[in-house]
Amino acid sequence: xxxxxxxxxxxxxxxxxxxxxxxxxxxxxxxxxxxxxxxxxxxxxxxxxxxxxxxxxxxxxxxxxxxxxxxxxxxxxxxxxxxxxxxxxxxxxxxxxxxxxxxxxxxxxxxxxxxxxxxxxxxxxxxxxxxxxxxxxxxxxxxxxxxxxxxxxxxxxxxxxxxxxxxxxxxxxxxxxxxxxxxxxxxxxxxxxxxxxxxxxxxxxxxxxxxxxxxxxxxxxxxxxxxxxxxxxxxxxxxxxxxxxxxxxxxxxxxxxxxxxxxxxxxxxxxxxxxxxxxxxxxxxxxxxxxxxxxxxxxxxxxx
Amino acid sequence: xxxxxxxxxxxxxxxxxxxxxxxxxxxxxxxxxxxxxxxxxxxxxxxxxxxxxxxxxxxxxxxxxxxxxxxxxxxxxxxxxxxxxxxxxxxxxxxxxxxxxxxxxxxxxxxxxxxxxxxxxxxxxxxxxxxxxxxxxxxxxxxxxxxxxxxxxxxxxxxxxxxxxxxxxxxxxxxxxxxxxxxxxxxxxxxxxxxxxxxxxxxxxxxxxxxxxxxxxxxxxxxxxxxxxxxxxxxxxxxxxxxxxxxxxxxxxxxxxxxxxxxxxxxxxxxxxxxxxxxxxxxxxxxxxxxxxxxxxxxxxxxx
Amino acid sequence: xxxxxxxxxxxxxxxxxxxxxxxxxxxxxxxxxxxxxxxxxxxxxxxxxxxxxxxxxxxxxxxxxxxxxxxxxxxxxxxxxxxxxxxxxxxxxxxxxxxxxxxxxxxxxxxxxxxxxxxxxxxxxxxxxxxxxxxxxxxxxxxxxxxxxxxxxxxxxxxxxxxxxxxxxxxxxxxxxxxxxxxxxxxxxxxxxxxxxxxxxxxxxxxxxxxxxxxxxxxxxxxxxxxxxxxxxxxxxxxxxxxxxxxxxxxxxxxxxxxxxxxxxxxxxxxxxxxxxxxxxxxxxxxxxxxxxxxxxxxxxxxx
Amino acid sequence: xxxxxxxxxxxxxxxxxxxxxxxxxxxxxxxxxxxxxxxxxxxxxxxxxxxxxxxxxxxxxxxxxxxxxxxxxxxxxxxxxxxxxxxxxxxxxxxxxxxxxxxxxxxxxxxxxxxxxxxxxxxxxxxxxxxxxxxxxxxxxxxxxxxxxxxxxxxxxxxxxxxxxxxxxxxxxxxxxxxxxxxxxxxxxxxxxxxxxxxxxxxxxxxxxxxxxxxxxxxxxxxxxxxxxxxxxxxxxxxxxxxxxxxxxxxxxxxxxxxxxxxxxxxxxxxxxxxxxxxxxxxxxxxxxxxxxxxxxxxxxxxx
Lengths: 304, 304, 304, 304
What we know:
The structure is a homotetramer of 304-residue chains.
Chain A: H1 3-15, H2 28-31, E1 39-44, E2 49-53, E3 59-60, H3 65-77, H4 98-102, H5 113-126, H6 130-142, H7 151-159, H8 162-173, H9 181-192, E4 195-196, H10 198-209, H11 224-237, H12 243-249, E5 254-256, E6 261-266, E7 270-275, H13 286-298
Helix pairs in contact in A: 1-13, 3-5, 3-11, 5-8, 5-9, 7-9
């Protein structure tokens, strides 16, 4: 299939749309990104790469990393992690405290902030050098050691993280955080600060299209069963309280980040990453979502 | 694939389990069903039928019908119906009023009771003879006119429907019910009272595995796009506040009913219906859920 | 004290204010009331009556009646009624379903709609002729048989009572309504439809300023202890989610109605009734609240 | 009146009751208090002191201090403080985050933890030396400089304050905390750590029975109007989600603390402080509440 042509023609159509969103405003590093940037990359399980636009430009992947931290924790601890975080859609915004209070500090799923903080706590407990080991986990998937944390983004987020600090303190009060709060949050913000290109994101996530095996390094990162289960959680929970809408419109499991990135996976076929910095009211990339909807419609292929 | 053998061997294993649930107790017709009943049927898009156990015995499909009423309303009104009901997981039990109050009478999705009542209201508005037309819609899919309402089940449900009446009055107060409440609820209870065998359920739902075209009558019931979108909604919302769990464990879009039935769809391949009357605490068939998990694990095939 | 002069001077000041509220719009009988009407009456435990403005004009007392139905139920059943309704402020609007769902059908207090419906159900259970007996209860307090139900108001309310019907069905589903829903709601709407003048309201409520004994007929309506307890509930719950505000500003136990009436009680001294039909956003009389605040400030007397 | 005799006879009766509660367990200093301790003191606006039991023994007043911090903030800033904290009962437990999230970081009232933290923040903003100035405020009321903070209690509370830290971070995220979180919380915990005897508590609160003027030092601490308003807030909000119950049973404005103290005020007459360390499920002194109910019943005097 000529994916590039499809990319280009969808992009032309979308460029004419009124693009009313805005970049994430709460940290300078994200607010300052040129809102006209647009990149898309598709990587097949056979190792073919298709891309368009600013596909080699690094951006802050933010919450997209939550899939990778979950993958690492799940690969080490297995189903045991579900004692501390659920797999249900929350039906609420990404940073809500309400359900966390009603449900005694157990987050609904690992992709809302509270759940990802619990995963961060799990990794701090089981890893020798969390920051180093986590990067190595990613490097092992992509066969490339260039992916790094961005300390100025991590610092910026940390300085305005009152809501996340409310979440972690609430969970600690319920006994669902084992380690020192500062240590857990440092690691959490470091992970969120990772920068990648859409090429890189598509490559890293291709293992989830390939039953847990990296098509690049041929390493088994996850068992086939674990890979499927992570895709299932992305499908039901990947877009906060727009998860149903994304499943309905795009029809693929996916995950968004407040840096404007979205990744989606077609199991058995490919992964696709798109980047456009302006966000809608729910915090998901405006053009990115529309692009993926148009793409799965154009090639007439979703998992449903 | 030898599906029957797989069915049989999974069933043997499950029979040894402690089966702690109980049948739905709120109406005599459901409470009185023999809890040992078990049937499963799989129907491929090529028209092959595989089954096991009590697969030719009628049971009350209950909420499974909500997929069919949605399919009919969506085929007639298109995306316009989403002005009155959402496509997001609710994160709450099937009959909760909380979100309905916060969200001004707009139900989260068409598979919780409130949403299905809105769909019933839509059908009452657009159909000449709702009861007759809806049965014909089903008959057209399956090419068989034997499927009928069960008036004693409908009457029983109506007589203890205080919670559903609370939902419909609340929505009426917000202006989201157009017709007379009694008319809407009569139709709603009639639809829920339909009885089918697992063979029949698998056959009817095979159109959702086949891009909206009935493999039996070869009629286009839904457009390919509509069929995919209904599958997406089943995936994210089909099991109330166990939807994430079902996606995680089974990996197929599906829908359960309080009569102990569950249907799941593997797009492009088959639909499968299972029936076992005892329910877990969330109101989903206990053995039915375990069976489907074991089945998709055994044949190593899910959409993820 | 020269109450009339105080009334007149406060009224002059308030007349110059911008009066932005509006009359209750949901039933024609309330919407059509002249919004300029204003009446106030004060009745002391010694039997002195002071009034100003339209103090002899009948208006629909609406929720003010909830204090009288509670008084009757409490005088007959005592503390037993607290098994079915609480005495805590709800912190939510008068017709909210949220807490009712979380708290299994037990309303927070007898002055929100759900609680008053439970009280209505209790009276239907214990009275031979609820409508007749309840009027006699009021007649016994005031020594005058002219107070009556207004059937056109009752009918109007009944025809648009979807929210209240949602409440009663929800409580019935939890087992907290004993009688037929239509019977309970008919009696509820009849009670709300009672019309009185501010003179009459002040007289009826004077028994709560006088330890439960009517200063007019000298009959003991309630025990001294019961009278105090009803005043306490009015203080904490009489104004829905403005109860704290009313306690803070006015400093007396009181109860409002959507017909624009407010009654307040200074135990050991007097009761005061005010009527001004325009309501604020919380459904309480705009000018009525301001008048009472100005009055207790002017005479420098509250219970606090 | 012979208050001491009344105290003694009520205490005899209560001693025979099964006292099932337990002392606050979350900090060693409170858990270790002898649960059999009991003290009560009543101080009239004429300066008469009546007491019984361990009335000269210091205990940790905990949340009772919230009335004093509110009094100080209100005396300095007036009604301006209501822009940052409400006066409505919350209908929820003392440390709930739910309403705080729905209501954008504005606590319902100054007596739940979130509200008291806002008051602490206000005092940090306006006072030169918050800790010193606040003690002086109390010393000015009681005419005695012996009342002090207890640093070991303050330290203990700080070390397990995850829930309170969740509250303050959430409010900071909504912009409702001006100062550094650590500074605000240090001051908050210091205030809560103050220890007094029941004699001292009754004396300090007697100014609220006396229109804001200390009967001891004859100083005007609050205006008459401010004093009444603080009493009104105590009445509606002083006991978290048992406020209605306390109004109903005791009939006086009051405030409890997790150290087992309760203070109540009869405006125009006296204040009364009681101390018994075991708490009920809502965190209020079990015997203390029963004692006050029996006391206002025995002397047949409440504000209602």
